[in-house]
Every structure is written in C-alpha cells, then in structure tokens.
Design a protein that fits this description.
Layout: E1 2-8, H1 14-24, E2 26-29, E3 32-36, H2 39-52, E4 59-65
Length: 87
C-alpha cells in the first residue's frame, strides 16, 4: 500500500520522529513522508512511533491508497526531497 504520513510532534521529540520515519518512508517536506509500506512495516512504524509520542499531545495522520498512481500530486515551488526513478 502507498502511504502519506503527516505528524505534529512536540519540539523535544521531533528529531526522533524524523529519524524513525526516514527509516520507513521518503521525506518530502517538514513532517510529511510518503512511500510504499507493507501492512507489517506500517504496524512496526506505528508501534515505534507510539513509544516516541506523547499520545495526549502529539498526533500522526496516515493517508492510504492502494497505489501511488491513484493520487494526483502537484508541487508548487521547490520540492524538498524529489524522488527519482533512476537507480
């Protein structure tokens, strides 16, 4: 599945969350990540994220699509971390 993850995390925990999310997804903008994850990898990411988070203060929102091709994406201005199909 293709996922877009957005988080709003307290300043003291944001560095840890950034590092964690970059292990699983592509960083595209401050607090925004995208990419393909299996259900198991998504559950693993969420388990680790909940350890970092303060659930009464922080939040994560995940948008899910069966495939990236079903999303239209427009970037206006400089793309923070452009993805390339070149290996």
């Amino acid at each position: 599945m293709y996922h877009i993850l957005v988080y709003d995390i307290g300043e003291k925990r944001v560095g840890k969350m950034l590092k964690l999310c970059r292990q699983y997804l592509n960083w595209i903008q401050n607090s925004v990540f995208e990419g393909e994850l299996t259900e198991v990898k998504l559950k693993e990411l969420m388990h680790k994220a909940k350890i970092i988070m303060k659930l009464e203060e922080d939040s994560i929102i995940i948008f899910t699509s069966s495939q990236e091709k079903w999303l239209d994406k427009q970037v206006i201005g400089k793309e923070k971390n452009g993805l390339s199909n070149i290996l």
